[in-house]
Structures are given as structure tokens and as C-alpha cells.
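User: Batch of two.

Assistant: Item 1 of 2:
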Amino acid sequence: MTRTTLRLVGCRKAFADGTVAVHDLNLTIEAGETLAILGPSGCGKTTTLRMIAGLERPDVGQVFFGDQDVTRLPIERRDVGMVFQNYALFPNLTVEGNIAYGLKVRGMAVAERNKRCAELLELVGLQAHARRGIHELSGGQRQRVALARALAPRPKVLLLDEPLAALDAQLRERLRSELDQLLRGLGITSVFVTHDQGEAMALGDRILVMQQGRIAQLGTPREIYQQPANPFVAGFVGNLNAFTVAGRTASGLKVSGGVLPWGEAGEPTTVYCRPEHLRVVSSEGHLHGRLLGQFFQGAQSRLLIEVGAAQPLLVDSADSVIHAPGDHIALAIEPRALFALHP
């Protein structure tokens, strides 16, 4: 597969009613990279993907594939492969017919077309299903046919719009792993849109979090989760506990339920931590509260703990101890697990 750097330079897109979907977007996607565009409905992620594809033209700005300005080129001239949420497969064609369709339209010779189809069927593990109709396939198999069809012409860029959204939770989890292995094996520049944070964390080399048509943060999954740029990113990616600071003592920050260890200068108005960073302890802890509920989640339990007037805390614990509602719970936290954010 060809490896192509993709750039959006100052791209802005507004619709007829005056709504600005994307504001002055500057973005570079490295050759061979998989970028996940993550955000809530209406944040501009699908419009960004459509501008890359050529399905929407930016009102201002340019789109480059490598050194080529493709801003005014339609999708059929951009050399992109696209997988849609509903797969958009031809129900009257077999699996093989769907994969070969784009090659046939391009005028590829029959022998070469058959060879390429065989390669793609092997790649997605559907050799035994080549002659089957689309209606005979499961949701996961249809997703793989759609992916094979998009890859058949050897595109420069692969674009995926909510590629796993139509699948049930268990199948989505399995295909997420398969898709990750496939994309990494191909090394093709890939961009996919999702509202599923788990999908973005699992598949993206980097994640672009969008908020109201702008970049809220761009970084690796680890950076996005551990070093969120603002409260929106922190709250959208993963669960979050927020503590309103009531003052500072010699031992830390006074919050509802106790005192948090804080070694940094200054006194932030709010500090945050992830649920897995709070530990249930038997001795004195930094926080004290009352258990509202404990929910078994397999490898861990989710505890909901009331601490004064603040929002209940979420605690993810691998401890097998079963607590009863109303039990007193002491919690400890490492200072490095706490962070403050700028609005």
C-alpha cells in the first residue's frame, strides 16, 4: 500500500443555515498513521472526514494528499477507500462481486481482478464465502467485505465512518482487535470517525478530540487519557471525579469528604482524578464517605461513594471484598494521580 501524508490547512466549513461545522482546522496525519476522530454528535468529526474524502468541499482552506492539492477533486479522483457505517454493499452481488466491483469499473483485466479479489478474501478471512450473497453473511462478515472492497483498488488513504457502530457489543469488541491488526499490517494512512472512546483508544495511533468544530486536543491515547487538555476532554474520554477545593492546609487541599495530598504550588479551584486511582483502605485515608452501591464488572467492581454535598465518587477497585450499602469507606490516593485543568 502507498503511504501518504494527509494535511488539512485552514479548512472551514459552514452550511446553508449559517451553522459552522468546522472552524479553521489545521491538521497533519502522518503517512501510515491511524487517526481516530472522536467527539459527540454535531462536533464536526463527520464533516472533517467528508472534506478529506471529497464529499464536502471546504469553504476556505486546502486538503493535501502528500504534495498534491486535492481540494477541488471529487472523491472518485482522490484515490481513497471508504467504509460507511451501513457498509453500503450491493445486495444483488456476491461477496466476490462486491469486492471486484470497483476494480471492474476501473477497467482492470479479468485475470488481474480475480487475483486481487483472492488476495483480499484471504486478507479478511472470507475465502470460503466468496460465492455467498450478502444476505447470507453476519454483521461482522459484512463489515469485512466492506473493508476488502475499500482496499481493493490500493487507495492512498482509507476512511472509515463509524465502522463498528452497527454491530453488537461482543462482536464489536472482537472486530476491533481484528481491524487493529489489519490496519497495522497494511500500514495504510487511515482516518476513522467514532463517538466510542474505547474504539478510539484501541485503534488510534493518535486521537483528535473535537468540540464544536474545533480541536479540543490531539495526542496519543495515553496523552489524551492521562494528560487531558481541558475539562471537556477529561470528561469525554473516560470517567472522571471532580473535587471542588475549599481551601488549603499544611497536608493538602480541603475537599468534601477529607483532604487530598497536593504538593504543587498554588491552590486550584477544582482537581480531578480517574476512578481507578482511588483505593479503598482499611486504615485512615485521605477521603471518607458512605457506600451507595457496588457493581460487579468482572475483573473489578465499581463503587459509588457519597462524600458530603459533592457528587458521588466513582471508584474502580480490583479488591474482591463485598461491601454493603451504607458502609463507611476510607479512600487513599497518590498525589501524582491528581491533576488540575484550565477551562
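Item 2 of 2:
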Amino acid sequence: MHTDRKTLTPLKIGELTVEKPIIQGGMGVGVSRSNLAGAVAAEGGIGIISTAQIGYDEEGFEKDQAGCNRIAIRKHIHRAKEIAEGKGLVGVNIMVALKHYKEHVQEAVRAGADVIISGAGLPMDLPKLVGNNKTKIAPIVSSRRATQLILKMWAHRYNRTADFIVIEGPKAGGHLGFSRDQLENLETLDYDHEIREIIACKAPYEEKYGTKIPVIVAGGIFDRADIDHMTELGADGVQIASRFVATEECDASDAYKNAYINAKKKDIQIIQSPVGMPGRALRNEFIKELEIARKPITKCYNCLEKCEPRSVPYCITKALIDAVRGDVENGLVFCGENVDRIQKMTTVHELMQELCYGIGS
């Protein structure tokens, strides 16, 4: 047990403050909904709900995905806030690549989301969609170039800047803003340098708008030592996803959680997603079969803006729903680079104690 750690500095986002500068990453479909996000917020962090096909288990989803997703966004934000009991913050992760991106943003704002984090594409219109509401907004970026582009465009078009920035590194799970070559040769990337560059390029906008733009770093962050390293690079907080899957409160099935706990390094694979981006997932029967032939799509779930069902290798909605429900061999199980280091089931409270204070690590 290590108790000599410095206390982590609370995270300030505008007028909002959270005691613990830890954001639980948004994981879809259905992996992080109200149960997980509410538990993280209750511990003084920021709990994030993924809106990607969030209503998959709502009655009527097979016929009306868009309507069920809107109902579920509202329901899970309200439920997470009830679980949090006024502590921490509750927000959503909304992928730019979604067909109903605009509706998801507007529904989250109406439901009282504290923050919206947006990636899987460049969220150029996010300020317009949120308007003058109090919901805080953050783009997910993986490069200095993308950061500069977004901050410049938001300033030019909407005369505003990001409330915070999430830098997602190459060791993250799910969809990634890197080439397959970069992801398969991680040792050649000096990503610490890129993080410093991204942090540096926000300074003119902080000066212009008289505000601090906190930077959160995500991707492969496993323990308190990783958090301390990111703080030394200049980060104000971290976003962690994979570790929260192996908690009792996570919204995924036990089979899904056990797939993480039992995963070995050799099981981690870079795949191509119908979103058009590479992703990191656990190698299973589903992925092995994809290497032989595409999986014909018999039903479209209207999830992605740029999806052509006749040509994409598989239906990502069906693959993710099958997995979160427990069919982890025939579904798609996204994961982070350090998933093999997860050895046991824990609780959100125990995990937050370990991350913040080194207790139990």
C-alpha cells in the first residue's frame, strides 16, 4: 500500500469543479450507461455515458432506433444523476460519425448533461448544436493539427473555445485517430512529445477568451503512476475506460467483463471499423471469421452517417450489441492496449481509491 502520494488536484471546467480529475471514458454500445457513469460521479469523478445505440434494449428498438436512442439518452442521464446524488459530473460521449449526431447532442443538452465529449470525427458544429446552454463541450483530438483546426474553427465560426480538451493517445480502445501502421508500431511513436505540442497550442485561445482550457489525456492509462506521468507532461486530468469495465457497476454483461479479465496480450488486435477508422479489439471467433469473408448485413440499424451496408465488412451495431449482451465470441469487444493487465473484478469505489491514492495497488 502506498499512502505517500500527493493528492490529485481537483479539476476545474469553467465554474464547475470535480474533486477527482478522472473521467471515465464513454464506451458503447451499452458498456457505459447510467449505472457506471453514476457510480463514477458519486465518487467525485466525471462519469460518461456513451450514446452510441444507447437504446438497444428499449422496447421498439428494432423498428425505431432513433426514437429509442433519444428516450434512452434522457433516461440514463437522469438515472446517473440520481445515483451520483449531486456529486461529481455526469456527461455523454457522442460520436461525430453517428447518423443522428445532432439529435443526440440536443437531447443530451435538454436532459441536463454536464459535459459533452465528442470524437470519431471532428466536432466542428458542436458549439452551434449546444448553443448558450450550460453544458460544457470538449473535442477528442489525437494530433496537434486536429486541435488547431478545431480551436481555430470554433473561434472563427462561433467566437468561443473548448471548455476542455481530451487528447486520445494510440493505446486507447475503440475507434482511434491513428493509422494502422502507427498502431502496430507503437514503440516508434513519441506521443509524449505530441501531448506537449497539443497542450502548447491552446495558449492563444486561453488568452483570447480569458479562460483556462484544461487538458485531459486518455489512452492506455492504467494506474496512479500513469496519472502522475501525464500530470508531469502538463495534463490537468486523465480519461480511463478499460479499467472501469471490470467493475461490478459496469453496464456490460458479466461475460463481457470476464473477457477483459481473462485477456492476454496476444488477444489484442487492430481491426478496421465500418466507421472508416482502425480500432483496437479482442481477437475472437468474430474477428477470425472476418479475416476469411465479410459478414453480409441483413438489417441496417441506421447508426453511422457514412455506412454503406452493401459494402462494409460487418454491421458494427449488431456486433457490439451481441458482445455487450454476453456473446463475446461472436460479437465485437473493443479494448485498450493494457487490457491484459486487468486481473480481477473490482468496484468503482475501490478503483477510484487506487487511482487517486495508490490504495490497493
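The chain has a mean pLDDT of 95.
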